[in-house]
Amino acid sequence: MSPKTLYDKIWDAHVAHESEDGTCLLYIDRHLVHEVTSPQAFEGLRMAGRDVHAPDKTIAVPDHNVPTTPGRENPDQMTEDSRIQVAALDKNAKDFGIHYYPVTDVRQGIVHIVGPEQGWTLPGMTVVCGDSHTATHGAFGALAHGIGTSEVEHVLATQTLIQKKSKNMKVEITGKLRPGVTAKDITLAVIGETGTGGGTGYVIEYCGEAIRNLSMEGRMTVCNMAIEGGARAGLIAPDETTFEYVKGRPHAPKGAQWEAALNWWKTLYTDEGAHFDKVVTLKGEEIEPVVTWGTSPEDVLPISATVPAPESFKGGKVDAAKRAIEYMGLTPGQKLTDIQIDTVFIGSCTNGRIEDLRAAADIVKGKKIKEGMRAMVVPGSGLVRAQAEEEGLADIFKDAGFEWRLAGCSMCLAMNPDQLSEGERCASTSNRNFEGRQGYKGRTHLVSPAMAAAAALTGHLTDVRELMTENA
Amino acid sequence: MEKFEKLTGIAAPMPLVNIDTDMIIPKIFLKTIKRSGLGVNLFDEMRYERDGSEKPDFVLNKPQYREAQILVAGDNFGCGSSREHAPWALTDFGIKSVISTSFADIFYNNCFKNGILPIVLPQEAVDVLMKDTEKGSNARMIVDLEAQTVTTSDGEVFHFELDSFKKHCLLEGLDDIGLTMAKADAIQSFEEKAAQERPWV
Ligand code: SF4
Questions:
Q1: Mapping DSSP to helix (H, G, I), strand (E, B) and coil, where does residue A466 land?
Q2: A150 interfacial to chain B (CB closer than 8 Å)
Q3: Measured from the CB, is residue A349 less than 6 Å from ligand 1?
Q4: Between B74, B83, B186, which is nearest A37 by CB?
Q5: Nearest partner of B26 among B85, B72, B82, judged by Cα
Q6: Which of A93, A204, A300, A377 could form a disulfide with A100 if both were Cys (CB 3.0 to 4.6 A apart)?
Q7: Angle at Cα A409 formed by Cα A464 and Cα A247, nearest 5°?
């Protein structure tokens, strides 16, 4: 047999039907659903008199719209249209008999955090969700990608997706990361290298020593942003770190099933000599803490750099950079560390897990945020929140002047009341710095949790390593 | 879904690269539970002032492009979120085809589910088409799905590549779910086999 990549193996194990032209029906093991991209799909099912094919493999949780302030069970806290969307999910989950975590459930949270936490996401699975950051689940060696609402309806009705196979791309991060450099810096640095279209048409497998050394939380951060590089999915081969994380989760296999699963999972790696259509290699030691300066996730620079001149780019990017610099209110040549920040957001499916909160708390401990700064921590799930409270992280944040919120997407996309106002500038641990993403005319700089914490203390973009030496 | 045949229409230029789904339809309009009615908010933040008045400089507000059915766009159009609200807003406005050097994957797929034809062409071809859009409503571009060609108002023809299955579905206006349900046997036998091999799933 010819050597296969990890992607090839998972793909082959899930093809339910292949047509002559290579169009496949890919069987879907887990379908995650949230309130924003699903109402039209359920509506479509009802209109056609169709049922959910496999309700047992379908999990729903409201996250995008929900307020993150206390007392949110009271629907008056939501705008009318948000309330309707959440109520529609409540009803659809009930009517079609799918697993559901309502806002009143401590397990509620961002769909991409809840899935892994509850053991719904397992190695070798196919996972889809009507959300582009479904790539997150690739950290488990699961083939996971975002789909549109028509496809949500298709999966609900048939548990399959019509797909053609993507190409294989390898992203290798060799060596070790230096102190102060995190998974977020890796994933941003990769996008800086490949551009937001660099992964289009590919499934990326991340590998190399620096990836191996990451925790599951870090691996999820890396895969989460595969979509920002244009890839259909990001994957990391499962290993002991993965198995350790999965073991004992509520929906993970137990007993003899666990052993059987483990045996299969251990075969999920790229064979020696397997073919990749594209290879990108970065040296772990050379990655610095990075920030974005513009309005595309590819606008990445090391924190030690300066705002670029639009003329330094090529083609259509010259105008895009001009527009971005104007939108962001920056001047070419300005030092990134001179950029003043008025809001800090720590959260999202990229960086709302316990390890992210620990990293931020480490920097903040015993200090106060800059006067006048608005800073908030929004845990990715109710369970992350509970654990952070138990570990004393919540108190560290609160003592420093952060708001300590309930779980949800919050200011990652600002569909709920958490928004930037016009011209406000935010250091954010989320994944998109598009125009208006965090609020109309709001300005976003993407950073790691440690870098966000550092900016909250100093009031400007800051190299976190300077604060770390201070602490040591 | 409506069948896509031959389209003769006005094309509007949007040369900006990386036009993302937040630009196409900002999230505040995602709170709907319907598919229709999003056209008025297409490109909302680029198209309107905060008070709701139109920005005269925005391409689709210019008299010669108000009836545009084709967009000629910069690289990596539709990047960002999976929201199908983006193609819903485009169709609702009247856009039936978007031409660019590249599209984001999910957006590209979503277009086909909504009767929109996204066309990928090399930079040189897009440059020629971009130039052709400058003629505004004085010119008509022709998109022929069957022949897989785009023809400028001067008669210059560009051939584009397209997946045969996607082409077939668009031409016939086919419903994917119906097609897949016809393969229910294959799905069932897959499920039986998978239940043996991977019972923990
Ligand atoms: S946290 Fe942000 S990126 Fe993640 S699912 Fe929510 S809105 Fe999407």
A1: helix
A2: yes
A3: yes
A4: B83
A5: B85
A6: A93
A7: 80
Residues 6+ apart with CB under 8 A from A2: none
What are the φ/ψ torsions at residue A462 (nearest 5 degrees)?
-140, 145
- The Cα angle at residue A353 between residues B104 and A249, in degrees rounded to 5: 100
- Mutation site, B72, B82, B175, interface A, largest A CB count within 10 A: B82
Give chain B's length: 201
Q: Which two tokens stand for residue A366?
A: 């015993």
What's the pLDDT at A471? 52
Distance in angstroms (rounded) separating the CA atoms of residues A243 and A20: 38
Give per-residue pLDDT as tens, B133-189: 999 888 899 999 999 999 999 999 999 999 999 999 999 988 899 899 999 999 999
Stretch 154-193 of chain A: residues touching chain B, C-beta under 8 Å: 154, 157-160, 162, 164
Q: Tokens 């990890």 map to which residue?
A: A6
The Cα–Cα gap between A40 and A156 comes to 12
- What SS3 state is found at A330? coil
Q: Which stretch of DSSP H or E encloses residue A302?
A: strand A300-302
- Rounded to the nearest angstrom, the distance between the alpha carbon of A34 and the centre of ligand 1 is 11
Closest chain B residue by Cα to residue A87: B33
Relative orientation angle of helices A382-390 and A354-364, to the nearest 10 degrees: 40
CA distances from A236 to A172, A232, B176 (A): 11, 14, 31
Given a cut of 60, whether residue A29 has pLDDT beyond it is yes
Q: Which residue(s) pair with B99 in the sheet?
A: B72, B119
pLDDT digits (tens, 9 = 90+) for A73-129: 887 888 888 899 999 999 999 999 999 999 999 999 999 999 999 999 999 999 999
A448 and A185 in contact (C-beta within 8 Å)?
A: yes
Contact between B114 and B91 under an 8 Å Cβ cutoff? The reply is yes
Is A247's Cβ below 8 Å from some Cβ in B? no
Instruction: Dig out the tokens for B33 from the structure.
Output: 């539970």
For residue B38, report the phi and psi dihedrals to the nearest 5 degrees. Answer: -90, -10
Q: For chain A, what percent of residues have pLDDT higher than 70?
A: 99
Q: CA B130, B132, B136, B142 torsion: positive or negative?
A: negative
Dmax of chain A from CA atoms?
65
Q: Do A316 and B105 touch (CB under 8 A)?
A: no
Whole-number Cα distances in Å, B45 to A64, A448, B53 = 21, 28, 11
- The pLDDT of residue A469 is 65
| Residues A286, A288, A290: CA angle, nearest 5 degrees | 140
CB B24 within 8 A of CB B90: yes
Domain boundaries, given as residue ranges, for chain B: 6-197
10 Å Cβ neighbour count for A300? Answer: 22
Within 10 angstroms of residue B198's Cβ, the number of other Cβ atoms is 18
What's the pLDDT at A71?
A: 85
- pLDDT tens column, A380-390: 999 999 999 99
CA distance A262 to B151: 56
Backbone angles phi, psi at A51, to 5 degrees: -110, 170
Closest CA relative to residue A455, chosen from A323, A292, A271: A292
> Domain B6-197 is in which class?
alpha beta
Its pTM stands at 0.94
